[in-house]
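Task: sequence design from structure.
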């Protein structure tokens, strides 16, 4: 008898292999023409004598980042930690190209074991610690455990900070604008330093090397984007009106962004600055608008009023063969974290994720041309959760996940607050 497809789980425990020799020319052929077309320039610093094995931390804004990484490492090979949705229908290829599978925002000790194996093999381990594409072109929250991983590996650490891929195809509008790419590639820690330096200093060096703001980079380098639909989709990320504070009623088209409630309108300039068509411009720099929304969510959390609840349709991704719809249910996100209840054909499914268990949350815009979704993972499965009634709410849920975690961490470190 065939097992139920829901019971066929991806084999996370299988050891990573060194990238097959016959695939290496293919990775180069698949990468160099594309990065050359985008006039990639790599600024290298402090890389004298840098040879594998080492840990390479890369910023993440688009699939193109993998090609930039391949070009930057040439002629060396690497193993990559890749989310399971990257493996769909191509598990063989990813395994043989040295991929290590992870489910996003889970604490998976098996992955740590695999990473150690790669360093022991004498190869480069490429990690995208933001674990998702940047939503607004600034650094996503990094896991606090990164410094510990670095210390445990005892290998040198380099950072590849890539500019241009967010502006070229932001996750809220993937049409390509053909923006040039620039990357900074440098060693930030020697093996000796990872052993000698305190955790706080290691984390600080990573944070400094990882800082980026693509709209600032655009302005500083005077990169004009004349793509006519450059702001189309921006309301997915900027979902709250700074004028009347209404949520979820923002909309966009062409180079314009507007509020469906108070009708205020903003235009995105070719240099990436927002200007109100009438009255005050609240935030000309798009990331400032995004951070304003974070403060609003934080306020709702502190007042105890934060809650998002909706009927949802849920897909499961137990293995790399593809999504399986498991039915409809309800998702609640509030001060207790996530609660998902689904009536599946195999009985009720109940998943809880506390604020302390997730420092961030993965979301997708218009995923599979079907709609926005939130994904929640256990170590064995990933659920793709599509809200059915609430419009444009997933960015707020992602921000709230980060702020709930931050509140929890603060409580932990200030004993008088219990
Ligand atoms: Zn408004």
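Answer:
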């Amino acid at each position: 008898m065939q097992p139920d497809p829901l019971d066929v789980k991806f084999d996370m425990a299988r050891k990573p292999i060194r990238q097959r020799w016959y695939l290496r020319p293919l990775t180069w052929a698949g990468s160099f023409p594309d990065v050359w077309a985008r006039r990639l320039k790599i600024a290298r610093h402090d890389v004298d004598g840098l040879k594998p094995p080492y840990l390479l931390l890369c910023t993440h804004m688009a699939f193109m980042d993998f090609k930039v990484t391949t070009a930057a490492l040439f002629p060396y090979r690497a193993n990559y930690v890749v989310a399971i949705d990257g493996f769909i229908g191509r598990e063989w290829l990813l395994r043989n190209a040295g991929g290590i599978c992870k489910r996003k925002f889970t604490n998976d000790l098996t992955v740590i074991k695999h990473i150690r194996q790669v360093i022991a093999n004498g190869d480069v381990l490429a990690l995208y610690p933001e674990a998702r594409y940047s939503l607004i072109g600034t650094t996503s929250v990094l896991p606090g455990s990164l410094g510990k991983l670095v210390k445990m590996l005892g290998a040198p650490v380099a950072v590849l900070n890539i500019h241009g891929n967010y502006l070229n195809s932001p996750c809220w509008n993937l049409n390509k604008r053909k923006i040039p790419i620039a990357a900074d590639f440098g060693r930030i820690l020697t093996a000796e330093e990872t052993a000698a330096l305190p955790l706080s200093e290691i984390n600080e060096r990573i944070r400094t090397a990882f800082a980026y703001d693509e709209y600032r980079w655009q302005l500083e380098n005077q990169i004009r984007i004349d793509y006519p639909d450059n702001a189309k989709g921006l309301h997915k990320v900027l979902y709250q009106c700074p004028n009347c504070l209404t949520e979820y009623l923002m909309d966009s088209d062409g180079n314009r962004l507007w509020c469906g409630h108070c009708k205020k309108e903003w235009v995105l300039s070719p240099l990436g600055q927002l200007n109100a068509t009438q009255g005050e411009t609240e935030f000309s720099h798009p990331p400032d608008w995004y951070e304003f929304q974070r403060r609003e969510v934080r306020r709702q959390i502190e007042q105890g009023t934060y809650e998002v609840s909706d009927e949802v349709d849920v897909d499961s991704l137990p293995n790399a063969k593809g999504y399986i719809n498991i039915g409809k249910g309800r998702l609640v996100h509030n001060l207790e974290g996530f609660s998902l209840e689904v009536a599946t054909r195999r009985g009720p499914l109940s998943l809880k994720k506390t604020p302390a268990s997730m420092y961030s949350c993965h979301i997708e815009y218009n995923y599979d041309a079907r709609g926005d979704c939130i994904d929640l993972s256990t170590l064995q499965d990933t659920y793709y959760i599509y809200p059915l009634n609430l419009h444009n709410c997933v960015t707020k849920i992602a921000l709230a996940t980060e702020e709930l975690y931050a509140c929890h961490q603060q409580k932990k470190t200030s004993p008088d607050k219990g």
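The chain has a mean pLDDT of 92.
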